[in-house]
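quick q for whoever's on today - can somebody do inverse folding on this one?? i tried earlier but teh output was garbage lol. tokens:
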């Protein structure tokens, strides 16, 4: 039976938090966060596990409240000029079983007023991992084209170089005459797909998201193969 996991109340809460991003308001509304956002998100994660396993058995849907797929609502403000303490979005990441943090390959869902999207790939991997991916792109342009620019993938996903951070030039050990030189300059390897509030709050959103992730599975497989972890 189709279920609705996320309601308009999620967006109402996040909009109000944006205008009242301080500890006192949070403490007054923490139970509301738990009821409207945390518990539905954990239920979504728990239910999504079966769909995720049909895409790959090596990605994890972890419904623990701490250390699981649901990202913490608290911002790390130690090195930021912005000292607001709480995130005004909901982040859910299904990481690879071998990943210890967000720098591992993953499938991602971002819920935020006026800015919902899904993502696949790796964000700012460590230098050796990034080099291995660039080398794989360099050595297999056909496989890269098929996985990152093919019709099935491109119907849902897009790679925006400016959102993946860029090196100033193609690394000297790689051929700058490659068919995809801009891709050889990326520091992150992420594809995104915008979502509307209506999509996120619809019944059967889990099925739609699983279909999207399936269309991005070739891209994720290429990245996994590049860094020699199983897909």
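ok took a stab at it. sequence:
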């Amino acid at each position: 039976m189709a279920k609705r996991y996320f309601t308009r109340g999620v967006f109402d809460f996040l909009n109000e938090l944006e205008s009242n991003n301080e500890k006192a308001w949070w403490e007054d509304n923490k139970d509301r966060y738990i009821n409207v956002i945390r518990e539905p998100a954990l239920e979504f994660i728990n239910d999504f596990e079966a769909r995720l396993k049909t895409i790959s058995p090596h990605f994890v849907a972890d419904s623990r409240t701490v250390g699981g797929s649901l990202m913490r609502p608290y911002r790390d403000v130690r090195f930021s000029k912005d000292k607001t303490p709480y995130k005004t979005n909901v982040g859910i990441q299904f990481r690879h079983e071998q990943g210890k943090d967000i720098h591992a390959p993953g499938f991602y869902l971002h819920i935020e007023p006026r800015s919902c999207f899904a993502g696949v790939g790796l964000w700012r991997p460590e230098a050796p991992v990034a080099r291995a991916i660039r080398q794989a792109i360099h050595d297999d342009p056909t496989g890269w084209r098929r996985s990152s620019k093919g019709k099935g993938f491109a119907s849902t996903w897009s790679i925006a170089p400016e959102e993946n951070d860029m090196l100033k030039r193609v690394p000297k050990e790689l051929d700058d005459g490659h068919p995809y030189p801009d891709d050889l300059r990326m520091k992150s390897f992420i594809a995104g797909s915008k979502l509307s509030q209506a999509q996120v709050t619809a019944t059967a959103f889990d099925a739609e998201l699983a279909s999207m992730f399936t269309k991005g599975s070739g891209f994720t497989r290429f990245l996994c193969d590049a860094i020699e972890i199983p897909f």
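fwiw The first strand starts at residue 90 and ends at 95. also The longest helix spans residues 23-55. so keep that in mind when u check it
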